[in-house]
Amino acid sequence: MKMKTRLITQAAIIAAIYVVLVLVFKPIGFGEIQVRIAEALTILPYFTPAAIPGVTIGCLLGNLLGGANIIDIIFGSLATLIGAVFSYLLRRQKYLVPLPPIIANILIIPWILRYAYGLPFTIPFLMLTVGFGEVISCGLLGLLLLFTLQKYKHVLFNASY
């Protein structure tokens, strides 16, 4: 029971932080060129499985509160869920952990931007712009976060899974 409570608490905290980051950095987190700072949290499945529902719910709430289209709320959250699950599966390969959210967002978000928001750009162009933002948020900031949290993982996550 103690472990279940810890995981639920971790998921809730991660979701809350994700939402705050989405809303604080909203001007650069939406649109055809987006650097969603909150996406750096998608490396957290490396430390705890609680991050999977945490970032997914955080994305869903962040999109909802940020005024996103319902298609974006659903499929953007799905992209985050897919990225988080595969990041968790790659947790033994530290440097590969940011790749799943980058790839999931490159493959899903451009379609949302094109068809839910009617952006006039081609899918390949949107893949490039979304990919650029994801490499910054997940790749650079995410890995920086991973290496910073690595020093404190036993305190923050009580890594005994």
Architecture overview:
By secondary structure, the chain is an all-alpha fold. It has one domain: Orthogonal Bundle (Arp2/3 complex 21 kDa subunit ARPC3). 69% of the residues lie in helices and 0% in strands. It contains seven helices and no strands. It has helices spanning 2-24, 26-29, 51-65, 70-89, 99-115, 123-150, 153-156. Helix 1 (2-24) packs parallel to helix 3. The longest helix is centred in the C-terminal third of the chain and has 28 residues, at 123-150. It is globular and about 50 Å long. The mean pLDDT is 94. Pfam families: QueT (PF06177). InterPro entries: QueT (IPR010387).
| Total domain units | 1
Rg, nearest Å: 15 Å
> Separation of termini?
14 Å
Q: What's the helix-strand series?
A: HHHHHHH
Largest sheet: none
**Average of per-residue pLDDT values:** 94
**Fraction of residues in β-strands:** under 5%
Helix/strand-derived category reads mainly alpha
What is the tally of beta strands? 0
Please estimate the helix content: 55-70%
CATH-assigned fold name: Arp2/3 complex 21 kDa subunit ARPC3
* Uncertain stretches of 5 or more adjacent residues: none
CATH class call:
Mainly Alpha
CATH-level-2 architecture: Orthogonal Bundle
Count of DSSP H/I helices: 7
General form: globular
List keywords for this structure.
single chain, 161 residues, mainly alpha, Arp2/3 complex 21 kDa subunit ARPC3, 69% helix, 0% strand, QueT
Q: What order do the helices and strands come in, and which of them pair?
A:
Blueprint: H1 2-24, H2 26-29, H3 51-65, H4 70-89, H5 99-115, H6 123-150, H7 153-156
Helix pairs in contact: 1-3, 3-4, 4-5, 5-6
